[in-house]
UniProtKB/TrEMBL annotation:
It comes from Bryocella elongata. Keywords: Hydrolase, Signal. The lineage of its organism: Bacteria, Pseudomonadati, Acidobacteriota, Terriglobia, Terriglobales. This is Beta-glucosidase. GO terms for molecular function: alpha-L-arabinofuranosidase activity; xylan 1,4-beta-xylosidase activity. Residues 1-20 form the signal peptide. GO terms for biological process: arabinan catabolic process; xylan catabolic process. SMART domains: Fn3_like (SM01217), PA14 (SM00758). Belongs to the glycosyl hydrolase 3 family. SUPFAM superfamilies: (Trans)glycosidases (SSF51445), Anthrax protective antigen (SSF56988), Beta-D-glucan exohydrolase, C-terminal domain (SSF52279).
Length: 892
């Protein structure tokens, strides 16, 4: 399928031709150092051109042959917002694999597909947002509190796990040659950033020196010092009263001096605006002062438009033009290293064909990641499900048939993803499988209108609606027809079907709709509107031939004929004809539509109970949605606020459904799809099994089905602690690490960090240390034997924990600290000898002044498949002790 339609070419600036006076210029000489070339190039620009080049959307400079470039591209778990790409599990699900080599491979796939898209875009003279080579990933903030809505984008709560996975992802993105990266990685958000989302533009954090260097910075150090990431993104929040994007501590002292970073810093979008906004940090009086401050403190790229004020700032003496030159040279060094100023024939990555996008090997890795991310939290023996034992299976729950619950946020666009309910039907073909939505995510919250409401025509027993796809937005030239089970589609820069162009098309759905009871029902049409991309979205709904709703946008702004939320009245529960038309027109972006409804309280639960009563087994697919937890969202439902959560319990509507279904006495398997920890206390006590699936990617449905059937032996481990209640936690706004995460939590968790079950059993034995008396500053080696003594092949995640002296370091040390891990595949009966080399940094501690050192004392060391002392651990850990003599300071 083509990435772009030919009609798009004229809408974007053609690459500028090099003028005669620049022929032979230094910046065009591939044989010179990038720094020399960048210096020469910047010296040829006017002040106004320099300011424009410092913003994320950098325009072309025709006289210098500089094409337009946009630094903003997303690749959190697949190349996002730029047409179909390979979609991996959400980052928190990738973290649950505890598989560092896998993360390296995923990074390679993301960067290869980004290059493939960039190369294709360049061939069409498109230089747009989301099609660049500067990837704003990974998010390596510490998921310190489960209430944070963006925690799903991270690798969890532990600095070493986060740092190791982030390091491998960065290396996979950038490739093996530091002077010629495949793409440039941008770890984010630097630093001490994890909510609340509603206050992020004005929120200030005053971390203790210990917490800063013990928890909030180690993973960034690994990405920059060890991973050599060429870029980094500064955060919205302030630290010690100074916005992160103007922090001399972070951007100058730590980044440039301590870590020797020589790449470029980009702001989070609008973060520099926050310097002068009245309702934000307001540390600068106006745009000129804000822009000057950001440049002087080291923020090189402004995602936003504040840097338009830089010429005025220079002219008023707030900064020198040479200060701006330093910023620009860093940016152009990056673009030169990427090969953007060299002939494509001389740049190996420029030869990556578009056929690499969603290649079979990439899709296979996505499936592997989804399988490895599955975490089995409880199993009374019901799993794996015995073939043929259950003749009637009821699949219930809002996440059994939700595209958003597969995708997560900042997601790639999957092509023809299969919903979990459909894959379960294919997997358990011997059973009669029925489906009901079961419950809304929370009472009053809209969710996808389920397939069970629709039929393609009167008397047709199939679920869903007849869909006709048209080549243009005029409903005149159908190119395809099919049955769509529900209206729930993400077509961001992607054509829905072959024969359509992604920039202009239309779809008509027809059939019947029958409601579960008479009355007024509230609906909503969620459009994938892309502001300020200039897209035009229209839809209309006809019920029994009468218009029930219509809506349109114009010039990229909403022009409302009626609100996207509308009400339809049903006098009875009989089938009624329905017609829905959707038209999309945009230069490049947008595209997508989901028909949602707000069911009356209790209606879905009653359907679920009725279905369970006629079944032998219930698979309940519950949890959260990226439409409820995420980045700065307008959500005010009970338990949610602004993208964050105010409570961590499974919402009441879903808990009530589980309890009512359980009252039927039918066995129940609970499958969780979510981006953050849930207090599923009732399910732990009453369900037969609980499988944590996260937002599992385009092959998530297959991974879930295979795990329930036993074809995939689950080996994922929790990258976060599952708490029993928010009452066990400090205030969300409290950034102190006391009583947070497994390292400092003093209570009893619902499920501990590192926890996960298997269909087989592993045994650890013969733990041996290289020494029991270690001189500070030296390495120590731990070796152990691991055996799969069960009857199934499977993976184990061997975890190494350090237990520091409780009385040392003024009581600041964590109770326990992950210092090593390895995911190992073993056949039934197979043994493996494992070896872990622990460096001084891994066994070091941070004191109250923020200084890191190896400290004297008696230490414990544990190796096992879970936290040491976890009463629910499936296998006992091997424990030993050693003593450190002396002390050894370590560099920051």
């Amino acid at each position: 399928m083509r990435l772009f339609s030919c009609s798009l070419v004229a809408l974007f600036l053609m690459p500028a031709a090099v003028s005669a006076q620049t022929q032979g210029a230094v910046y065009l000489n591939p044989g010179l150092l990038p720094e020399q070339r960048a210096h020469d190039l910047v010296s040829r620009m006017t002040l106004e051109e320099k300011a424009a080049q410092s913003m994320n959307t950098a325009p072309a400079i025709p006289k210098l042959g500089i094409p337009a470039y946009d630094y903003w591209s997303e690749g959190l778990h697949g190349v996002a917002r730029s047409g179909y790409s390979t979609l991996f599990p959400q980052a928190i699900g990738m973290a649950a694999t505890w598989d560092a080599p896998l993360l390296h491979g995923i990074g390679e796939v993301v960067s290869t597909e980004a290059r493939a898209k960039f190369n294709e875009a360049t061939r069409h003279d498109i230089h747009s947002i989301y099609f660049g080579l500067t990837i704003w990933s990974p998010n390596i903030n510490i998921f310190r509190d489960p209430r944070w809505g963006r925690g799903q984008e991270t690798y969890g709560e532990d600095p070493l796990l986060t740092g190791t996975l982030g390091l491998n992802f960065v290396r996979g993105l950038q490739g093996p040659d530091p002077l010629h990266p495949r793409v440039i990685a941008t770890p984010k958000h630097f630093a001490v950033h994890s909510g609340p989302e509603s206050e992020r533009h004005k929120f200030n954090v005053d971390p203790t020196p210990h917490d800063l260097w013990d928890t909030y910075l180690p993973q960034f150090r690994m990405a920059i010092v060890d991973g050599k990431a060429d870029s980094i993104m500064c955060a919205y929040n302030a630290i010690d009263g100074v916005p992160a994007c103007a922090s001399d501590l972070l951007l100058n002292q730590v980044l440039r001096k301590d870590w020797k970073f020589d790449g470029f810093v980009t702001s989070d979008c609008g973060a520099v605006d926050d310097f002068f906004q009245q309702k934000a940090h307001h540390t600068s009086p106006d745009k000129e002062h804000a822009a000057a401050t950001a440049v002087l403190m080291g923020t090189d790229t402004n995602c936003g438009s504040t840097y338009k004020a830089l010429p005025a700032a220079v002219q008023s003496g707030l900064l020198k033009e040479s200060d701006l030159d330093r910023t620009l040279e860093r940016l152009f060094v990056a673009r030169i290293r990427l090969g953007l100023f060299d002939p494509p024939a001389s740049v190996p990555y420029a030869q990556i064909p578009f056929s690499e996008d969603r290649s079979p090997a990439h899709l296979a890795l996505s499936l592997k990641a989804s399988r490895e991310s599955m975490v089995l939290l409880k199993n009374d023996g019901i799993l794996p499900l015995s073939p043929g034992k259950y003749k009637r299976i009821a699949v219930i729950g809002p996440n059994a048939d939700s595209l958003a619950a597969l995708e997560g946020n900042y997601n790639a666009i999957p092509e023809n993803p299969k919903m979990p309910v459909d894959v379960l039907r294919e997997e358990f073909v011997q059973a009669k499988l029925t489906y009901a939505e079961g419950a809304p995510y929370a009472d009053g919250v809209a969710l996808t209108a389920p397939r069970t409401l629709f039929h393609p025509a009167a008397g047709d027993t199939r679920e869903g609606l007849k869909a006709e796809y048209f080549a243009k937005p005029d409903f005149a030239s159908p190119v395809a027809s099919r049955i769509d089970p529900e209206i729930d589609f993400d077509w961001n820069s992607a054509a829905p079907v072959p024969g359509q162009a992604q920039d202009a098309f239309s779809v008509r759905w027809t059939g019947t709709i029958a409601m579960p009871q008479a009355g007024d029902f509230e609906f909503n049409m969620r459009l994938a509107h892309c502001y300020p991309c200039g897209d035009h979205e229209q839809f209309r709904v006809l019920l029994d031939g009468e218009e029930a709703a219509h809506f349109g946008t114009s010039k990229g702004e909403f022009r409302e004929s009626t609100t996207p939320r509308f009400t339809m009245h049903f006098a009875d529960t009989k089938p009624h004809t329905i017609l829905i038309e959707y038209a999309h027109r945009a230069p490049l972006f947008g595209g997508g539509i989901t028909l949602e409804w707000v069911p009356p309280a209790g209606v879905l639960q009653a359907e679920a109970v009725k279905l369970a009563e006629s079944s032998d087994l219930v698979v309940a697919m519950v949890g959260l949605s990226p439409e409820l937890e995420g980045e700065e969202m307008k959500v005010t439902a009970a338990g949610f606020a602004g993208g964050d959560r105010t409570d961590i319990v499974l919402p009441e509507s879903q808990r009530r459904m589980l309890e009512e279904v359980a009252a039927t006495g039918k066995p129940m398997v609970v499958v969780l799809l979510n981006g953050s920890a849930l207090a599923v206390n009732w399910a732990k006590d009453h369900a037969n099994a609980i499988l944590e699936a996260w937002y599992p990617g385009e092959y998530g449905g297959q991974a879930i089905a295979e795990t329930l059937a036993g074809k995939n032996n689950p080996a994922g481990r929790l990258p976060v602690t599952f708490y029993k209640s928010v009452a066990d936690l400090p205030a969300f706004t409290d950034y102190a690490m006391k009583n947070r995460t497994y390292r400092y939590f003093s209570g009893s968790p619902l499920f501990g960090f590192g926890y996960g079950l298997s269909y087989t059993h592993f045994t650890y034995s013969h733990l041996v240390l290289s020494t029991h008396a270690l001189d500070a500053g030296k390495e120590i080696t731990a070796e152990v034997d691991l055996r799969n003594d069960g009857h199934r092949d499977g993976d184990e995640v061997a975890q190494v924990y350090l237990l520091p002296p409780a009385s040392g370091n003024d009581g600041l040390s964590p109770k326990q600290q992950l210092v090593g891990f390895q995911r190992v595949s073993l056949k039934a009966g197979e043994s493996r000898h494992l070896r872990f080399v622990l460096t001084p940094r891994e066994i070091s501690e941070v004191d109250g002044k923020g200084e890191r050192s190896v400290q004297a004392g008696s230490y414990g060391l544990a190796i096992g498949g879970a936290l040491p002392g976890d009463p629910a651990a499936p296998a006992a850990a091997q424990m030993t002790t050693f003593t450190i003599t002396g002390s050894a300071p370590l560099p920051r």
